[in-house]
Automatic annotation (TrEMBL):
Residues that bind substrate: 97, 130-132, 154, 164, 198, 219, 242-244, 263-265
Natural source organism: Schumannella soli
Assembly and oligomerization: Hexamer formed by 3 homodimers.
Pathway(s) where this gene product acts: Cofactor biosynthesis; NAD(+) biosynthesis; nicotinate D-ribonucleotide from quinolinate: step 1/1
Family: Belongs to the NadC/ModD family.
Function (record text): Involved in the catabolism of quinolinic acid (QA).
UniProt name for this protein: Nicotinate-nucleotide pyrophosphorylase [carboxylating]
Amino acid sequence: MTPEQIDDVLRRALAEDAPWGDATSEAFLPAGAPAIAVLAAREAGVLSGIEVFARTFTLIEPTAEVELLAVDGDRFAPGAELAIVRGSARSVLRAERVALNLAQRMSGIATQTARYVDAVAGTRARVVDTRKTTPGLRALERHAVRNGGGHNHRFSLSDAVLAKDNHLAVLQAQGIGLGDAIRSVRARLGHTTHLEVEVDRIDQIEEVVSAGVDTIMLDNFTPEQLVEGIAVVAGRALVEASGGVSLETVAAIAATGVDVISVGALTHSVRALDLGLDVRVG
């Protein structure tokens, strides 16, 4: 998550939220009135996006001061003070909603990720995200996953070769054998390009692994099927479990011995964490 990525997201969000200024603050508040506001937790969680939160205020008012009382990855209790903002009242209130929206969502992702990571503790499994992210916010949401102790899958379609069910359906329609296709791709790829193939049946595993993949994704396998699949792979590739993973099922999946568990729910349906920004009076 680079400063340029943060600023790009914030400029678009701020322009959306106040395209012609903040009509309410400009009508009610004196131009020079100062404000001090505190970012506080209203529930327990894991912090993410504190730098994004701070940058929202200084992007609007470069002289604003944001004192950070916690860092990304910190766990906090209800009532914890996470940051103090000092600036003009108009600029603080203009930035408030965008700053909170992003910090709440990112902290929600970090908190959810931490629950999954805690659930698989003591196993070899890595909890990773997917591309099921909010359009335009992937860099921020992936950062939040790391803050929660998780790991990132490929960032984009450009970063690795991952053949999924729809790719395989096209190959089948064209009469191209899966093993032959994998060997052809393997021969053309550079040695640094990761090759992964998704399967949804036990009987597909041998053909895929023997053709030379780096990772095989076992999609929607039960824990019992995962154990069987891992035995077929026999250490010849990394094994990723995917599909329908939840907090209720992730521990059993991890216990099978898979290397990676990809979880779309880390980002696609997470609840924003309850954080508040309150102006101090007196």
